[in-house]
């Protein structure tokens, strides 16, 4: 092996090590941001989740085989829903009542979402939350496991840096 080949081999090894270290550092930073920005033990993601879609629109997306909408209908019901709420048959919700009931759970968060998002916003709660504990256990959804990386999440003021 000549000197040029040896130097190229050393450079490839060096760059590979640098890439792996950078990748590990990046993963660690992302993990730290998740931990610092949100505490899952507070169950805010279960108590107040939002979307711009009405229950009827979520059902329509589910019927088009949208995975996220299918999970939404399995997990969440809108605030202000009647006791006989059903995504397929009785899915009308008064948006003002929806906002009022969600505000009782987390007023600052609801107001922050409403102030930052244009158009109608609907708030939902997980129907599998009982005494601040998830009853799904091993059946958790990708919507739960992905939180706080979920697309239906905004940073909650006051929770940053909290430890659990």
Supply the helix-strand structural class.
Answer: mainly alpha
What gross morphology would you assign?
elongated
Distance between the termini: 56 Å
Q: How many β-strand stretches?
A: 5
Rg is 22 Å
Strand order of the largest sheet: 1-3-2
Task: Please give a structural write-up.
The protein is mainly alpha-helical and 164 residues long. It has two domains: 1-30; 40-155, no CATH class. It contains six helices and five strands, in the order ααβααβαβββα. The strands form two sheets. The protein has a three-stranded antiparallel sheet. The model is unreliable at 33-38 and 149-164 (pLDDT under 50).
Architecture blueprint of SSEs:
Blueprint lengths: L2 H35 L6 H4 L1 E3 L3 H9 L3 H9 E3 L16 H22 L5 E5 L2 E2 L2 E2 L7 H4 L19
Antiparallel strand pairs: 1-3, 2-3, 4-5
Helix pairs in contact: 3-4
What is shown here, in short?
The protein is mostly helical.
For this entry, give a set of tags.
mainly alpha, 2 domains, two-stranded antiparallel ribbon, elongated
């Amino acid at each position: 092996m000549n000197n040029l080949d040896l130097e190229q081999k050393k450079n490839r090894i060096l760059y590979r090590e640098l890439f792996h270290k950078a990748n590990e550092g990046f993963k660690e930073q992302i993990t730290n941001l998740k931990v610092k920005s949100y505490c899952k033990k507070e169950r805010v993601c279960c108590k107040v989740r939002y979307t711009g879609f009405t229950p009827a629109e979520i059902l329509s997306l589910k019927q088009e085989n949208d995975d996220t909408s299918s999970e939404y209908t399995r997990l969440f019901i809108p605030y202000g829903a009647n006791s006989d709420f059903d995504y397929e048959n009785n899915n009308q919700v008064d948006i003002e009542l929806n906002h009022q009931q969600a505000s009782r759970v987390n007023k600052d968060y609801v107001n922050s979402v409403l102030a930052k998002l244009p158009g109608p916003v609907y708030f939902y709660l997980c129907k599998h939350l009982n005494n601040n504990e998830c009853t799904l256990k091993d059946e958790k959804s990708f919507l739960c496991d992905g939180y706080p990386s979920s697309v239906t999440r905004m940073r909650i003021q006051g929770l940053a840096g909290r430890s659990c």
